[in-house]
Specification:
- By secondary structure, the protein is mainly alpha-helical.
- The chain has six helices and two strands.
- A two-stranded antiparallel ribbon has the order 1-2.
- β1 and β2 form a beta hairpin.
- α4 packs across α5 and α5 runs antiparallel to α6.
- The protein is globular and about 55 Å long.
């Protein structure tokens, strides 16, 4: 098996702020991380532990989906991005910060719920154009661009087939 730069960093790993789902291959915030960051009870906001965990899983899924859709890469490149998201410590911090931005937007204004709405004015029947509203919080997008996680240019980092999901 070939070795890559990220293999030496010893991630992915779980801590008090995030856990890595090895079946979905993505990080998820913990309830404690949200409670500590915003000094609130996220369980009280979500009305139950199950709802809070479900919302955090959804936020994680939405973030990773946005990254993969934005980058629109060939399968080989998508695998390389997935590998880097799992193994790069700097990107791990950015993923955490971006998910916290999404939680903040959800607590303040229900941002994560917008994708579930019909966006039709019931009085007039007019459908609102939501094409300019991103699927994730704008602050999260800024974080992802800032670390180079979101980009459309050439991507030079590649992994060998035997490195893909070998230890994450």
């Amino acid at each position: 098996m070939s070795r890559t730069y990220y293999d030496n960093q010893g991630v992915p790993f779980d801590d008090t702020d995030m856990v890595y789902d090895s079946t979905k291959h993505r990080y998820k915030l913990t309830i404690d991380a949200v409670d500590n960051e915003f000094n609130v009870s996220f369980v009280a906001f979500a009305l139950s532990v199950e709802n809070a965990e479900s919302l955090l899983r959804e936020i994680s899924a939405d973030l990773y989906k946005f990254i993969y859709q934005y980058n629109r890469r060939a399968e080989k490149k998508r695998k390389a991005v997935e590998h880097a998201l799992a193994k790069n410590l700097d990107w791990r911090d950015t993923i955490k910060d971006s998910m916290l931005d999404m939680v903040r937007a959800t607590i303040r204004g229900g941002y994560s719920l917008q994708k579930d709405l019909a966006w039709v004015n019931p009085e007039t029947g007019i459908v609102f154009d939501m094409s300019n509203i991103p699927a994730i919080a704008p602050d999260a997008i800024e974080n992802l661009f800032g670390m180079g996680i979101l980009f459309k240019g050439e991507y030079s980092y590649q992994i060998d087939a035997d490195d893909y999901r070998a230890d994450y």
